[in-house]
Specification:
The longest helix has 30 residues. By secondary structure, this protein is mainly alpha-helical.
Length: 253
């Protein structure tokens, strides 16, 4: 049975799962619940185990969380590998995956949401990149209703956005320190560390190979993108996408 990825189009964590599936050539169906309902879908699919997407449903089993999805893929679809064969390198790749997931990902989300949510139409455009005009108008109309919930859920406020911006720059510093003069973060090949680092930066750096991005960015996000893109780490993110993002393995339901 074809795996089904329940995902949020905009989310960088969901992009991480999509990229892993595509990188391994795993044919899969993608389903995106209406914004605001993803928590209910995640809880139902995982029987309360997760309240966020992505969730991969395969052979009657639901795997929640992008890290767990990649771990499942490495066990069941090992080629091409994302985990290094060498135990020490594998451990380091997993440490870096965790760093970018935990230290960078939430800060990117908080920073972008803080500057997007005040604009109801911009929020609708971000959430419904594949939607029609009628859907986007309807979503813009209800943004004021769910805006407080998003702020509460992700800690979105002025102080949080300022801290997030500083943390994003610190994560770029860390990326460049780990990268050194090499092409990849661990060893001499593409690993889960590179995939996670590049995916977590995409809502800001917007490599053209990244699907489901809105057409525009709020000015503060665009300004930070202009600051980070010329840096070695910014160029690395674009290079990882150019070299390794590849074609989608999505198939019709």
């Amino acid at each position: 049975m074809t795996p089904v990825l329940w995902h949020i189009e905009l989310s960088h964590y969901n992009e991480k799962a999509r990229w892993a599936l595509d990188h391994k050539g795993v044919a899969h169906v993608r389903k995106a619940p209406l914004p605001g309902l993803h928590g209910a879908y995640a809880a139902a699919l995982t029987r309360g185990g997760q309240r966020r997407l992505p969730v991969l449903k395969v052979d009657g089993t639901a795997i929640g969380d992008s890290t767990a999805i990649i771990a499942w893929l490495e066990e069941h679809r090992p080629d091409p590998p994302l985990y290094p064969a060498d135990p020490a390198k594998r451990a380091r790749a997993l440490e870096l995956e965790d760093y970018f997931d935990e230290e960078l990902g939430p800060r990117v989300r908080r920073f972008v949401w803080f500057h997007t949510l005040p604009d109801a139409r911009g929020t609708a455009e971000s959430l419904l990149t594949q939607g029609g005009e009628r859907q986007k108008r309807a979503m813009a109309a209800v943004v004021p209703l769910f805006r407080p919930l998003v702020k509460l859920d992700f800690g979105v406020d002025a102080d949080g956005a300022a801290e997030a911006r500083a943390g994003i720059v610190a994560a770029m510093d860390h990326l460049e320190s780990e990268l050194g003069s090499g092409d990849y973060l661990v060893g001499d090949s593409f690993t889960v560390a590179d995939l996670a680092a590049a995916a977590m930066f995409t809502p800001l750096l917007r490599p053209p190979e990244r699907d489901y991005l809105p057409d525009t960015q709020p000015p503060p996000a665009a300004e930070l993108r202009e600051e980070l893109t010329p840096r070695p780490g910014g160029q690395y993110v674009h290079e990882m996408y150019a070299r390794h993002r590849g074609a989608s393995a999505e198939v019709a339901a």
